[in-house]
Design a protein that fits this description.
Helices cover about 35% and strands about 10% of the residues. It is mainly alpha-helical.
Length: about 180
């Protein structure tokens, strides 16, 4: 339940590392890391820079997204995730120096061309509905909300890309 573009990746990384350290692959097997990697792929532009939302305003960076994509690529072996790793780099800072190497050939993820939606989670929606600190409570049904919506013309450097920040502001409460 986080929407600060730098912090959003840290609990995901920590959970994946803890799961691996305990030999419990449930977090990965149930697809949670894949969902996080899909969010990462939706919010990066065609040059590998992360859209600015929350308290991450850098238009030429990708915060801690690289380890999420690398760990997901290592586990799911998806060529589209290899494309994402190629875009954002291989920074091992947040993964205890582990590189999570693979030899998967990168391919542009065609399923993320056109409109890509990341839905608002029920937990985030419910949190916003009951929070006394929220300026904007939901005024439409959960099924009509989105967390992020990207419109992408393709994965070429000069293809069009637009990221819309939706309702899922998480607990950091950035009203961007």
């Amino acid at each position: 339940q986080e929407d600060a573009a730098a912090y959003v990746w840290l609990p995901i990384i920590h959970t994946a590392i803890y799961s691996l350290s305990q030999g419990d692959m449930t977090y990965l097997a149930d697809g949670h890391l894949r969902d996080a990697a899909r969010l990462a792929m939706v919010v990066i532009d065609n040059r590998g820079y992360q859209g600015a939302f929350g308290d991450h305003d850098g238009l030429r960076s990708f915060s801690a997204m690289a380890p999420v994509l690398r760990m997901a690529l290592w586990h799911y072996r998806d060529p589209g995730l290899a494309w994402g790793v190629k875009l954002v780099g291989r920074d091992p800072t947040y993964t205890l120096g582990q590189d999570f190497n693979t030899t998967i050939e990168p391919l542009p993820p065609s399923d993320l061309v056109g409109a890509s939606v990341v839905r608002t989670t029920k937990a985030s929606y419910d949190l916003a509905a009951k929070s006394k600190l929220r300026a904007g409570r939901p005024n439409i049904p959960l099924g009509q909300t989105f967390d992020k919506l990207a419109l992408r013309g393709g994965w070429g450097e000069n293809d069009e890309y637009l990221l819309l920040d939706g309702h899922g502001r998480g607990t950091h409460m950035h009203q961007d």
